[in-house]
Design goal:
The structure holds two protein chains of two kinds.
Chain A (H helix, E strand, L loop, with lengths): L3 E8 L10 H16 L8 E5 L10 H9 L6 E4 L5 H14 L5 E8 L6 H9 L14 H16 L3 H15 L26 E3 L2 E2 L9 E9 H7 L4 E10 L14 H14 L8 E3 L5 H10 L8 H6 L16 H4 L4 H17 L12 E8 L4 E8 L1
Parallel strand pairs in A: 2-3, 2-4, 9-10
Antiparallel strand pairs in A: 1-7, 1-8, 4-7, 5-6, 8-11, 10-11
Helix pairs in contact in A: 1-2, 3-12, 6-9
Chain B lengths: L27 H7 L4 E5 L5 E2 L14 E5 L4 E9 L12 E7 L4 E6 L13 E8 L5 E7 L1
Parallel strand pairs in B: 6-8
Antiparallel strand pairs in B: 1-2, 1-3, 4-5, 4-7, 5-6, 7-8
Classes of the chains: A alpha/beta, B mainly beta.
The structure holds zinc ion.
Chain lengths: 388, 145
C-alpha cells in the first residue's frame, strides 16, 4: 500500500453567532477544500462528519450534510471524540484510504456553539466528563484544566505569569489571521489590570485570559491515496505519522496532574511511525483550549523537558521566528475553538505552512509539521505528523 | 395476586447537588452515605480496590464485589476554586473541586466550604466526610485531617 496524502483543506471563518444553520456552516469549509483540491464533489468516495454531539439539535448530522453537500449516495458516517473529533476523523480516513477501500475521503468538522448560553455550554461540555461521579459536584472544563495548572505549578514552579505569556503569543497571531474569532491584541499587563476582563478569575489559578474563545465554525480536510495525490496535488503533503490514545474519564483514575498522558503516548506513536523526533518538527499546532494545555503540550510532545515548558515561552522559542513555532495562527485561544471543527482547522494550518501558503503567518520553509489535538480533559489524544 | 409491583430503584438521584444518574447497580452507595459512610468496592475475584465504586471488574471480569469504606486520610493532589458554575450549581459558589490521593486509589470531590482558602495547600492531609446538602441531597466533602 502506498502513502496517503492531503489534497485539500478548508475552513470557514470562526465567528460568534454564525448567521446560518449547521449544514450551511459546513458548506463554507467544504467549498474551500474542494476549490483547494481542484476536484469535483463527485470525486469524493466517502465522507466522515465530526462534531461533539452535545451542541447539536440535529441527530445524526452525517446524512443531512451528505445530502446538502452533494455527497450522496456515497457512504457517510458521524464520528466523535469531543474536541479531537476531526483528528480522529483523519485517522479513520487514513485507514479507509490505506486499506484501498476508498481513493478519496473528506473529513468535515463543525460546531455551532452559539445556539446555547455560555453557562449551558459549560454544563454540556462538562457532561463530556464523568456524569455519574464528577458532574454532581458542579464541574466545568476550565476547572478541570485548572486542576492541571495547579498540579503543574506545584510540581515545576510554573506561574500564572508564564501562562499569560502563552495568551499574549496567541493574540499576536490571532490579529493577523483573518479567520480568527478573536482579532484583538492581549498584553501581559492586562492579566494584572483589574479593569481588564483578561484578569478576571474563572477557576483558580486560571483567569479569563487563559481560556479559549468559543466559536462557530467548520473545517474540511480531503485525503487521497498516493496515485491520486500525485496526480492532483502540485505541492503534495503526506500523512507521515498518526498516534492516538485514551485515558480514565474520572480524574480519580489519573496518575499525574502535571501532564496529559494521552498526548505523550500519541506523540510517541506518531514520531515512531513517521521515523522522526521532536527536533525534526518545524512547525506545530497544539490544542491550547487553555494556556496550561499548550504549556503541557510542549513537554508531552518533547519540545521541552518536563517542567521546561515555561522557558520555551519565556524565550519566545515558540514564536514564528523561534526554534519550534507553535500555534502561529492564533491557536484555539484566539483563532477560536468550535469543537468538532478544531482538528481540521489545525491540520489546514499545517498543510498551508508546509506548502508555503500561510501568508503573513508563514514559518520559514518547514518540511515537517505536527498537529496535537486533545478531546476532553486529556480523555482522548491525537497526534498527526505531516510532511512534504 | 399478591405480587408486588416492582419499584424502580432510583436511589442514585440523591447524589450530589444535581445528579445526572438515577439507576445504577451500585445504588447501595447511597444507603451508606445515609449512614455517614463513604464506600468503594473491592473485587472478590482479584482483590482490586475501586473508587468510585464499580459493579464490575475490568481486570478479571468478575461482578462479585464487596463494599469497603474509604477511611483514613488522603493527600490533596490538586484543586481548583470555581468562580462560575454550571447551570444548577450557582447557589453553591464559590466552591473548590479537588482530588485526594489515598495511595491505593484517589477520590474526586469538593473541599468543605469552611476550609479557609489560604490554608488549602497541595500535599496537605485531608479526609472525606459525608454531608447532607441544604436541598436534602447526599454528598461528601474534604476536610482538614
Ligand atoms: Zn477482579
Amino acid at each position: 500500500m502506498g502513502k496517503v496524502g492531503i489534497i485539500g483543506v478548508g475552513q470557514s471563518a470562526f465567528v460568534r453567532g454564525y448567521p446560518g444553520s449547521i449544514r450551511e456552516l459546513a458548506f463554507e469549509g467544504f467549498k474551500e477544500a474542494i476549490a483547494d483540491a481542484q476536484i469535483e464533489t463527485k470525486d469524493i468516495d466517502a465522507s466522515i462528519i465530526c462534531s461533539a454531539p452535545e451542541y447539536d439539535k440535529q441527530r445524526s448530522p452525517a446524512g443531512v450534510f451528505a445530502e446538502y453537500l452533494g455527497l450522496i449516495p456515497q457512504p457517510t458516517c458521524y464520528l466523535e471524540s469531543l474536541c479531537s473529533s476531526s483528528s480522529m476523523g483523519l485517522r479513520m480516513a487514513y485507514s479507509l484510504v490505506k486499506s484501498g477501500l476508498h481513493d478519496v475521503v473528506a473529513i468535515i468538522g463543525f460546531q455551532k456553539m452559539s445556539e446555547i448560553s455560555s453557562a449551558e455550554s459549560q454544563e454540556r461540555m462538562g457532561r463530556g466528563a464523568d456524569i455519574q461521579w464528577e458532574s454532581p459536584f458542579g464541574t466545568m472544563m476550565p476547572a478541570y484544566y485548572a486542576m492541571f495548572a495547579r498540579g503543574h505549578m506545584e510540581t515545576y514552579g510554573t506561574s500564572p505569569d508564564d501562562l499569560a505569556l502563552i495568551r499574549v503569543k496567541a493574540a499576536t497571531y490571532g490579529q493577523i489571521n483573518e479567520k480568527a474569532v478573536y482579532r484583538k491584541p492581549v498584553t501581559f499587563e492586562m492579566f494584572s489590570d483589574p479593569e481588564s476582563p483578561m484578569s478576571g478569575p474563572v477557576a483558580s489559578p486560571l483567569r479569563v485570559g487563559d481560556c479559549c474563545a468559543n466559536a462557530d465554525g467548520s473545517s474540511c480536510v480531503i485525503v487521497a491515496n498516493e496515485e491520486k495525490t500525485k496526480a492532483l496535488s502540485k505541492k503534495p503533503v503526506w500523512i507521515l505519522g498518526l498516534g492516538a490514545a485514551s485515558a480514565s474519564v474520572n480524574m480519580a483514575g489519573r496518575d499525574a496532574f502535571s501532564r496529559l498522558e494521552v498526548a505523550r503516548l500519541a506523540g510517541e506513536q506518531a514520531y515512531g511511525m513517521a521515523g522522526v523526533t521532536p527536533k525534526d518538527i518545524d512547525v506545530a499546532e497544539v490544542h491550547d483550549c487553555f494556556t496550561i494545555a499548550e504549556l503541557m503540550a510542549y513537554e508531552n510532545l518533547g519540545f521541552a523537558e518536563p517542567g521546561g515548558g515555561k522557558e520555551l515561552i519565556k524565550s519566545k522559542e515558540t514564536y514564528k521566528e523561534g526554534c519550534i513555532p507553535v500555534n502561529v495562527d492564533g491557536g484555539l485561544l484566539s483563532k477560536g475553538h468550535p469543537i468538532g471543527a478544531t482538528g481540521g482547522a489545525q491540520i489546514r494550518t499545517i498543510v498551508l505552512q508546509l506548502r508555503g501558503e500561510a501568508g503573513e503567518m508563514q514559518v520559514k520553509e518547514p518540511g515537517v509539521g505536527l498537529v496535537h489535538n486533545i478531546g476532553g480533559v486529556g480523555l482522548y489524544g491525537n497526534v498527526s505528523i505531516l510532511g512534504r | 395476586m399478591g405480587k408486588k409491583k416492582k419499584e424502580v430503584d432510583d436511589r442514585f438521584k440523591k447524589f450530589g447537588t444535581v445528579s445526572f444518574t438515577s439507576i445504577t447497580k451500585i445504588n447501595d452507595f447511597i444507603d451508606y452515605l445515609e449512614q455517614g459512610k463513604l464506600m468503594g468496592t473491592r473485587c472478590k475475584g482479584c482483590g482490586i480496590l475501586f473508587f468510585p465504586p464499580r459493579a464490575d471488574c475490568y481486570k478479571c471480569l468478575s461482578s462479585d464485589m464487596e463494599w469497603v469504606e474509604v477511611s483514613g486520610t488522603g493527600k490533596l493532589a490538586t484543586y481548583s476554586k470555581l468562580e462560575y458554575a454550571p447551570i444548577g450549581f450557582g447557589d453553591d459558589l464559590p466552591y473548590a473541586i479537588a482530588v485526594l490521593d489515598y495511595g491505593d486509589y484517589k477520590v474526586f470531590g469538593r473541599i468543605a466550604g469552611d476550609v479557609p482558602q489560604d490554608e488549602i495547600k497541595v500535599g496537605m492531609q485531608m479526609k472525606a466526610v459525608v454531608n447532607t446538602l441544604p436541598n436534602g441531597q447526599l454528598n461528601y466533602v474534604f476536610e482538614k485531617a
